[in-house]
Structure to design on (1044 residues):
C-alpha cells in the first residue's frame, strides 16, 4: 500500500491564531514525517514546505488573463523588497521547523523583479527554513529579449528552473493573445534560458478559435523538438472579467467547440506521451522525474506558504489569503507585519474536498486513506462509493484499494466527475 | 353627507326605497380603464378622501393590481345627489374579469340591472368585452356605453362609436365620452346611471330571497358573503337558510362597503351588501345559492345555480421535498378564499409528494401558482396541465363496464379496457387584426379547430372556432399572443364532450418514464408533439457523463427519439494553489444545484427543463 502518512496534524495555536514570537515557537511533534518506503519514487516529497511568492506587476494585461496582475507606472522596489521579506518572515514565524522543498516566483511578471530582490528572498527563505539539497526554485518569465538579458543574474540569484510564457508558435496568434513578443524573440529567450537554467518549461495555449487538429499537431511537434523536460499545455478558457469574455459576449469571436477541444486534448496526450513527456496532471507534461515539485505540493495538498498580494497558503488545514490589490497588501504589511486578509481553519469536509479536487488532477490519483487521516473523516465519508463504482464501470475512474485515479478517458470530465463522487 | 351621519341613519333600520337604487357593473377589456373609472366614481361621490385613495381601490390583491384583473367580485355603495335634487344609492359591482370565472361573472351580472360598457377610445371593442356584453344583454341589462381615454392622441371616438353599433349592435349616439384618468365625463356617467339604468323591483314584505353573489374569508370577520336582496328583507339576528347547500345560519352582521365597511341594520329588495353568519369556510358558501328565511322560506330558489367544477388539472410539487407540509398548509389557506379550486395529495415516482389540483381555467391555475410562489415563498414544479377526460371502460373480470373521469394522465387505465374517450370542447371567439388572420387560422386548424364563423369589421376579423380544450390548455394563449404580437383577444365557453381519438404519450429519459411529462394527446398529433418534446428535452437536459436516449412512446411503441450525446469536456485547465478555495466553492455550488434537480434513470433533469418543456413554444 502507498504510504498513508498523515500530513503534519498539529493544530496551529488556537489562542493566538496567527503569530508566534520567534523563539517561542513550540516544538511540534511529527512535523516532518520521513518519506515512507513504497511511495511513488520520484514524487515523494511529503512533509516538505513549498513557498510561493507573488509579484503582481505586468507591463500590460493580456486579454485572456484573470490572474492577480496589475499595470503600474512605477514600483518602489525597495519598499516591495522589504514588504515581501516581512511577509515571508511572518510565515516563517508561524510555521517553523519545516524543510523547504521549493520556491516559486509567480505573477504578474516576476521576471521583471530586480534579481537582487529575488536573491534576497531566496536567501531569507532558506535561512528561515532549511532547504532540501535539491530545492527547486522556479521563476515564471516572459520570453522577451529584455527579460532574457536578466536570466544570468536570476540564475546567479539562485533560480534553477524557469517557466516561460511562450504561449504560441505563431506570430499572428501571439498578437491576438496580446503578447509583446514574437516567435523568433520567444525562441531566442528559450535558448538563453536553456543555457542558464538546469530546468526549463514553457507554456502553450491551445484549443484556440478555429484551431484545427493538423495545425495543433504541427505546433506541438515543433514545441516538443526544443527538448525541454516539461511543458504546460493549457486549453484556452474564457474567464469571466477578462477582455476575451467581453469580446465573446459581443460576438467578436466564438470559442472552440468543447467537442473539438476534447479531440485536441486527446491528441495532445498521445503526442506528448509518444515524445516521452506524458501528462502527469491535466495540463502538465514532463519527462518522468522532471515534474514541477512545487506544483505537485499543491495537487498533493501539502503545505504551502504564499506571500505577496493575493497569495493563498495552506498551513496544516489553515487557509490563508493575502490582500489582493498591491497597494492594500503593502499597506497591510506595513501596518501588521504581514499581508493576510483572512485566515480560516478549514473544516474536515473542506480539507477533504480540496485534497480530492486537487489530487484527482494527477495521473497518480489520490490515496483515500491518506486524505481520510489528514482530514479526520473516514474513507466512506470522502466519496460516494456507489457513484465511484458506477463511474469505474464506465471506465472514467479506477479504484485499487484506497487508491483512486481518474483514467485517461475521465480526465477531461474531471469537474463533472467530482460533482458526482465527492461526498463530504 | 358625512360618513358619521350616514351610519346613524342606517342604525334606524331603514331600507332604501327601490326607486332610489341603481345597481350596475362595469364591462371593460383589461387595460381599458375599468379600475380607474371605479376609483373616480368613488372619489367623486365622497366614498374616500383623496388621501385615502390608493390607486385602484377595488383590486385588493397584488396579483389583481399587477395583472389588471379582478379575481373576486366586490361591490361599493356610492351616495349620489343627482341633478334632479334627489339622493340615490348606486351599487357598483366589480365583476371578475376573465373567462375562467365566467360563472362568477354571470352571478355578479344577475345582481345588477345595468352596466357601463367601457371601451378604450383608441383600442376599440375586444373579444372579451363582447362576451361580457352578450352576457349582460342576456340578463336584460340596460347598457350605457362609455368611451374612455378620449384625451389620448390616438383616440378615435367616432370610429369606436361605429364599432359599438356595428359589432355589438347597441346604439352609441348617446355614449358618454370620458377620461377616467383625467376626470373628464364623470358627472355625465353618474347622471346616465340614474337616468338610464332601471331601478330594481321587489316586494319588501315577501319572504326573503337573496342571491349569494360571492364570498371570501376575512381573518377578523370570518366568511364575508356578498348578497343581492331580491325580495323581502334581511336583518341582523335572522335565521337564514342556504337553499342549495341546505344549511341554516344566524346573521350576525349586515352591511355594505363604501368602500370601507359600514354596518347596516337591514337590507331590503334591490340592495347589495354583505352579511356575516359565523361561517368558517368559504366552501360552505356556493356562489349563486339562494338565501332565504329559515322559518318563512321563499317558494322556489333563484334560477341559474350551477355547481362550479374545475376543468383544468395539474400536479404541483415542491422543488424541495421538505416543503410538502408548507405546500399543503398554503393550499388550505388559499382555499379558504377560493372554493373553486380543488386539491388532493398525489405522489409521483420522481417528483415525490405533491398535490393534484383542479382549476377553473389556465389563468386560474397561473394565479394560484403565482400566489404560492410569491405569497408563500414556495418553489414549485408544475406538471403538464390536463383537462378532464371521460373514459368509457368495458367490463373486466372483476368490474362492470363504466364511465370514469380522468384528471391525471398518470392514472390512465389499461388501454385495452378503454372503449372510447371523450374530451371537453369549447367554442372560442377570437378577435384579430387582419394581417395576423392567416397564421391564426393555421393555429386553430393545427389544434383540431372547426371554423364556425368568420366576419370582418373594419380592419379586424372575428372568428369563431370549436376547439378541444386540451389543445387550448397546451400553450394556446402564448401562441396566440406571439402570432398576433399581442393584438388578438380570445374568449371561450365550454360546449360539452365529444369523442376523440386520444392516446397517452409517455416520455422516457434513459429508458425511464418521466411521469410528470406524460400527456394525453390526439393520435394524429402524437408523433409531431412527441418529436417536438424530445427535441426540446434534448436542448434542456444538460449533457451527462453518458449518452441519454430521450423517447416519446405510446404504449410500448416508441414514436420519437433523440439522443443527448455524452459530455466530452468539463475540466478546469489551470488549477494551482490559489485556486483550491474557489474550486471548492464551485464544487459545493454544483452539488447544491443538483439538489434542485430531479433524477430519472440516473439523469438529473433541472426544474427549468420541466417548465420549459411543458411550455411548448414554437411548434409547426
Amino acid at each position: 500500500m502507498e504510504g498513508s502518512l498523515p500530513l503534519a496534524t498539529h493544530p496551529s495555536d488556537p489562542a493566538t491564531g496567527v503569530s508566534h514570537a520567534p523563539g517561542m515557537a513550540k516544538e511540534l511533534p511529527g512535523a516532518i514525517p520521513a518519506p515512507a518506503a513504497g511511495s511513488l519514487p520520484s514524487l515523494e516529497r511529503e512533509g516538505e514546505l513549498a513557498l510561493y511568492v507573488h509579484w503582481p506587476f505586468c507591463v500590460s494585461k493580456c486579454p485572456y488573463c484573470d490572474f492577480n496582475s496589475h499595470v503600474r507606472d512605477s514600483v518602489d522596489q525597495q519598499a516591495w523588497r522589504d514588504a515581501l521579506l516581512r511577509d515571508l518572515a511572518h510565515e516563517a514565524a508561524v510555521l517553523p521547523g519545516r524543510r523547504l522543498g521549493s520556491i516559486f516566483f509567480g505573477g504578474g511578471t516576476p521576471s521583471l523583479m530586480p534579481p537582487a530582490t529575488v536573491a534576497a528572498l531566496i536567501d531569507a527563505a532558506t535561512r528561515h527554513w532549511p532547504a532540501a539539497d535539491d530545492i527547486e526554485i522556479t521563476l515564471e518569465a516572459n520570453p522577451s529579449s529584455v527579460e532574457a538579458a536578466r536570466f544570468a543574474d536570476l540564475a546567479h540569484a539562485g533560480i534553477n528552473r524557469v517557466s516561460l510564457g511562450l504561449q504560441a508558435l505563431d506570430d499572428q496568434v501571439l498578437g491576438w493573445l496580446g503578447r509583446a513578443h514574437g516567435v523568433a524573440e520567444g525562441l531566442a529567450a528559450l535558448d538563453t534560458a536553456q543555457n542558464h537554467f538546469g530546468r526549463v518549461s514553457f507554456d502553450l495555449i491551445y484549443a484556440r478559435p478555429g484551431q484545427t487538429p493538423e495545425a495543433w499537431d504541427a505546433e506541438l511537434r515543433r514545441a516538443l523538438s526544443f527538448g525541454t523536460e516539461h511543458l504546460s499545455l493549457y486549453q484556452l478558457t474564457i474567464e469571466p472579467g477578462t477582455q476575451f469574455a467581453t469580446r465573446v459576449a459581443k460576438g467578436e469571436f466564438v470559442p472552440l467547440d468543447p467537442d473539438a477541444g476534447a479531440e485536441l486534448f486527446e491528441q495532445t496526450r498521445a503526442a506528448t506521451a509518444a515524445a516521452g513527456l506524458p501528462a502527469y496532471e491535466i495540463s502538465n507534461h514532463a519527462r518522468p522525474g522532471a515534474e514541477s515539485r512545487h506544483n505537485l505540493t499543491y495537487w498533493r495538498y501539502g503545505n504551502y506558504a504564499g506571500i505577496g498580494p493575493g497569495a493563498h497558503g495552506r498551513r496544516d488545514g489553515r487557509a490563508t489569503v493575502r490582500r489582493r490589490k498591491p497597494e492594500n497588501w503593502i499597506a497591510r504589511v506595513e501596518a501588521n507585519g504581514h499581508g493576510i486578509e483572512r485566515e480560516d481553519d478549514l473544516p474536515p469536509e473542506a480539507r477533504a474536498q480540496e485534497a480530492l479536487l486537487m489530487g484527482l488532477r494527477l495521473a497518480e490519483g489520490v490515496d483515500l486513506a491518506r486524505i481520510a487521516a489528514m482530514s479526520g473523516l473516514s474513507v466512506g465519508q470522502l466519496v460516494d462509493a456507489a457513484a465511484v463504482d458506477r463511474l469505474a464501470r464506465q471506465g472514467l475512474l479506477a479504484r485499487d484499494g484506497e487508491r483512486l485515479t481518474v483514467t485517461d478517458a475521465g480526465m477531461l470530465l474531471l469537474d463533472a466527475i467530482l460533482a458526482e463522487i465527492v461526498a463530504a | 353627507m358625512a360618513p358619521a351621519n350616514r351610519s346613524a341613519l342606517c342604525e334606524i333600520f331603514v331600507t332604501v326605497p327601490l326607486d332610489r337604487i341603481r345597481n350596475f357593473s362595469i364591462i371593460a377589456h383589461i387595460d381599458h380603464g375599468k379600475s380607474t373609472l371605479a376609483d373616480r366614481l368613488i372619489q367623486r361621490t365622497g366614498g374616500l378622501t383623496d388621501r385615502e385613495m390608493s390607486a385602484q381601490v377595488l383590486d385588493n390583491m397584488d396579483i389583481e393590481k399587477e395583472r389588471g384583473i379582478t379575481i373576486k367580485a366586490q361591490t361599493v355603495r356610492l351616495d349620489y345627489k343627482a341633478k334632479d335634487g334627489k339622493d340615490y344609492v348606486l351599487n357598483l359591482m366589480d365583476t371578475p374579469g376573465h373567462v375562467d370565472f365566467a360563472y362568477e361573472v354571470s352571478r355578479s351580472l344577475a345582481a345588477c340591472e345595468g352596466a357601463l360598457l367601457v371601451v378604450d377610445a383608441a383600442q376599440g371593442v375586444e373579444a372579451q368585452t363582447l362576451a361580457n356584453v352578450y352576457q349582460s344583454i342576456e340578463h336584460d341589462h340596460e347598457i350605457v356605453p362609455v368611451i374612455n381615454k378620449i384625451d389620448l392622441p390616438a383616440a378615435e371616438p367616432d370610429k369606436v362609436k361605429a364599432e359599438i353599433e356595428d359589432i355589438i349592435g347597441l346604439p352609441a349616439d348617446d355614449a358618454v365620452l370620458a377620461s377616467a384618468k383625467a376626470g373628464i365625463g364623470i358627472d355625465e356617467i353618474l347622471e346616465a346611471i340614474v337616468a338610464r339604468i332601471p331601478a330594481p323591483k321587489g316586494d319588501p314584505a315577501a319572504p326573503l330571497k337573496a342571491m349569494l353573489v360571492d364570498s371570501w374569508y376575512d381573518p377578523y370577520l370570518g366568511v364575508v358573503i356578498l348578497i343581492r336582496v331580491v325580495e323581502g328583507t334581511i336583518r341582523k339576528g335572522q335565521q337564514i337558510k342556504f337553499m342549495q347547500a341546505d344549511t341554516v345560519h344566524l346573521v350576525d352582521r349586515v352591511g355594505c362597503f363604501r368602500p370601507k365597511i359600514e354596518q347596516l341594520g337591514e337590507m331590503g329588495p334591490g340592495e347589495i351588501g354583505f352579511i356575516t353568519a359565523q361561517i368558517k369556510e368559504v366552501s360552505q358558501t356556493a356562489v349563486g345559492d339562494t338565501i332565504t328565511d329559515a322559518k318563512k322560506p321563499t317558494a322556489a330558489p333563484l334560477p341559474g345555480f350551477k355547481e362550479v367544477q374545475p376543468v383544468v388539472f395539474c400536479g404541483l410539487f415542491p422543488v424541495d421535498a421538505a416543503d410538502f407540509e408548507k405546500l399543503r398548509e398554503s393550499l388550505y389557506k388559499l382555499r379558504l378564499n377560493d372554493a373553486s379550486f380543488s386539491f388532493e395529495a398525489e405522489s409521483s415516482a420522481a417528483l415525490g409528494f405533491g398535490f393534484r389540483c383542479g382549476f377553473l381555467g389556465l389563468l386560474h391555475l397561473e394565479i394560484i401558482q403565482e400566489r404560492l410562489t410569491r405569497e408563500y415563498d414556495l418553489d414549485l414544479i408544475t406538471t403538464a396541465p390536463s383537462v378532464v377526460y371521460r373514459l368509457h371502460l368495458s367490463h373486466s373480470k372483476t368490474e362492470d363496464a363504466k364511465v370514469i373521469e380522468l384528471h391525471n394522465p398518470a392514472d390512465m387505465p389499461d388501454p385495452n379496457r378503454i372503449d372510447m374517450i371523450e374530451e371537453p370542447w369549447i367554442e372560442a371567439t377570437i378577435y384579430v387584426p387582419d394581417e395576423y388572420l392567416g397564421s391564426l387560422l393555421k393555429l386553430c386548424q393545427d389544434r383540431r379547430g372547426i371554423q364556425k364563423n368568420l366576419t370582418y369589421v373594419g380592419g379586424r376579423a372575428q372568428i369563431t372556432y370549436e376547439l378541444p380544450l386540451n389543445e387550448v390548455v397546451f400553450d394556446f394563449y402564448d401562441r396566440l399572443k406571439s402570432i398576433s404580437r399581442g393584438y388578438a383577444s380570445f374568449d371561450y365557453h365550454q360546449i360539452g364532450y365529444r369523442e376523440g381519438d386520444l392516446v397517452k404519450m409517455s416520455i422516457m429519459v434513459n429508458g425511464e418514464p418521466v411521469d410528470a411529462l406524460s400527456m394525453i394527446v390526439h393520435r394524429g398529433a402524437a408523433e409531431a408533439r412527441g418529436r417536438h418534446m424530445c427535441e426540446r428535452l434534448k436542448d434542456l437536459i444538460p449533457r451527462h457523463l453518458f449518452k441519454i436516449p430521450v423517447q416519446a412512446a405510446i404504449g410500448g411503441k416508441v414514436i420519437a427519439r433523440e439522443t443527448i450525446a455524452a459530455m466530452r469536456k468539463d475540466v478546469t485547465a489551470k488549477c494551482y494553489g490559489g485556486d483550491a478555495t474557489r474550486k471548492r466553492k464551485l464544487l459545493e455550488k454544483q452539488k447544491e444545484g443538483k439538489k434542485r434537480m430531479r433524477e430519472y434513470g440516473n439523469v438529473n433533469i433541472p426544474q427549468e427543463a420541466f417548465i420549459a418543456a411543458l411550455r411548448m413554444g414554437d411548434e409547426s
